[in-house]
Amino acid sequence: MYEFIFYLSSVIAVIAAGTILVVRHPVHAALYLIVSLLALALLFFLLGAPLLAAFQVMLYAGAILVLFLFMMMVMNLRTERNLPLLLPASWGGVALLALLLWLVILLLLSRSSLDMAVNIMVIGPTAVGNALFGPYLVVVEAAAILLLAALVAALYLSRRGKR
């Protein structure tokens, strides 16, 4: 049963990610991205990483996509045809994928927790913290330095045009 849920949620993620490339309205693309990220969070949960699934929902599907939508509002992005957002035909695909994903989650939650505990080895926050600050400490520090360098470069390039 979990294999079926895994493959169904992976198909939803791939379809939603592919649809991002073909929709014309940027808000619709952001909604398809939300569905794709939620399907990926379900895949992380099925693979035994509930902490990573929670981070996926909170950070990517929550915070970063709110920033994307804010950026779209600030930049006042328009398409060539200026399609209105409230056409029912334009929301049908994302609504269908979201409904299908919701049914998959309900199917997963209807299964007993004992059955899930037998099939999935759960990796908790302690194991993730021990791995990040244990054998992978140098990699985490290198990523932090790389992000800091990118931040400094972005600030320098944004200020350079104002002088």
Write a structural description:
The chain is mainly alpha-helical and 163 residues long. The chain folds into 2 domains: 1-77, NADH-ubiquinone/plastoquinone oxidoreductase chain 6, subunit NuoJ (Four Helix Bundle (Hemerythrin (Met), subunit A), Up-down Bundle); 125-162, no CATH class. Helices cover 79% and strands 0% of the residues. The protein is built from 7 helices and no strands. It has helices at residues 2-20, 26-46, 50-75, 88-110, 113-119, 125-132, 137-160. Helix 2 (26-46) packs antiparallel against helix 3 and helix 2 runs parallel beside helix 4 (88-110). One of its GO terms (molecular function) is quinone binding. Pfam families: Oxidored_q3. This is NADH-quinone oxidoreductase subunit J.
Essential attributes:
163 residues, 0% strand, NAD, NADH-quinone oxidoreductase subunit J, mainly alpha, Nuo/plastoQ_OxRdtase_6_NuoJ, Four Helix Bundle (Hemerythrin (Met), subunit A), 2 domains
Question: How is the topology of this model organized?
Answer:
Layout: H1 2-20, H2 26-46, H3 50-75, H4 88-110, H5 113-119, H6 125-132, H7 137-160
Calculate Rg over CA atoms. 20 Å
The CATH class designation of the largest domain is: Mainly Alpha
Per the CATH scheme, the topology name of the largest domain is: Four Helix Bundle (Hemerythrin (Met), subunit A)
* Percent in strands: under 5%
The H-level CATH homologous superfamily of the largest domain, spelled out, is NADH-ubiquinone/plastoquinone oxidoreductase chain 6, subunit NuoJ
**Helix coverage percent:** over 70%
Sheet with the most strands? none
Q: What is the second-level CATH architecture of the largest domain?
A: Up-down Bundle
Q: What is the general shape?
A: flat
- Tally the beta strands: 0
Number of discrete helical segments: 7
Distance between the termini: 62 Å
**How much is the average pLDDT?**
80
Briefly note the structural class of the backbone.
mainly alpha
The parts where pLDDT drops under 50 for at least 5 residues are none
Main location: membrane
Keywords: Cell membrane, Membrane, NAD, Quinone, Transmembrane, Transmembrane helix
Family: Belongs to the complex I subunit 6 family.
GO molecular function, one term: NADH dehydrogenase (ubiquinone) activity
